[in-house]
Predict the structure of Enoyl reductase (ER) domain-containing protein.
Amino acid sequence: RRQVWILANPPSGPIQPDTFRLEEAALPEVKDGEVLIQVDYLSNDPAQRGMIQAGADPKRAYRPPLTAGQPMGGTAVGKVLASKSQKYAAGDVVTGRFGWTDYDVIPDSQIDGRAVSLASRMRRSPPLGMTSVTAYQGIFDILNVKPEHVVVISGAAGAVGSVAVQLAKKVVGAKRVVGIAGGKEKCDWVVSLGADACVDYKSPTFGADLKTALQDDDVDRYFDNVGGVVFDTLLTVMRTKSKIGVCGQISSYNGVVTPFPRFGEVIKNRLTIEGFLVLDFLKEWPAAVADLAKWVKEGKLSTTESETVVDASLADVPEVWQRLFKGENRGKLVTKIAH
Ligand code: NDP
């Protein structure tokens, strides 16, 4: 038998105790082209919140939203225990979108590939994972960060942000790189990664602290991972004709609506705002991973403490995922499932 988390009540606000329910189900027999898989590691991604939004319009979503009664899913790494597939054999470690379950029987088409390198993307070497490729896309492709730029990165202690900080400072050598994160401890870590300064957005003096960290200079490039009040505050320090890359808006994912009273700055200072998705970067992905791997070797990208791995039972999976929204992770948040 297996256990699987089901989306019971799609939320429009904060996640509730009855948003998900854990169900037991019989494991089906493995048929031709299928494998029995043990799910070992789950990637925790803020985007999974978007997948379960109540009343989401499928035409406006970049991935089909889940509806009530469907199994909750996400990127995962697992081991093939039994196989009737031509492509995968028992013992293979594979990655794909397996979801919040301990065991599953799936068609081999649901597997992205063997995880020799992919597992290492999520596990042994998170700098080579999806969130790092997102940071790469934002810094190089969208924001085109140059050595003469003053750069601000929010969510700077998270998976995407912590890599973006290192790329901007240690790879590009941008003039000034300022991180934004929740709390002193995280900010100290962001500075240890190379940022010139890091500002705690939870402080009541955030606006003034940001100006101090910028040494009263203006910002050429803002890498936005959080939206909300932080985004609105940044609008007031952007240089004329500068650019904001919108990667994420985590502050709004659980239904919090922030007005942007200073949006007029976009007109006054002729700002460019560009949203982007790593899914549009698949063609460039292998080259990005090769560059990231090179920079890891050269010591420009840190692999130490760049992830938070939580040992958990399947019952704890939704709680661990919600830590993303409470800021209880540093770097990539990974769940290791006990069997
Ligand atoms: P993180 O590792 O950054 O984890 C989320 C972090 O967000 C938390 O640790 C917390 O840090 C911060 N946070 C939570 N709530 C708030 C809030 N209300 N205001 C400000 N910060 C908050 O996650 P990822 O690196 O996986 O993702 C970061 C962002 O990038 C997300 O918005 C995500 O949706 C987006 N993303 C976009 C992709 C794309 O293709 N465009 C791909 C991957 C991710 P703290 O303690 O500092 O508050």
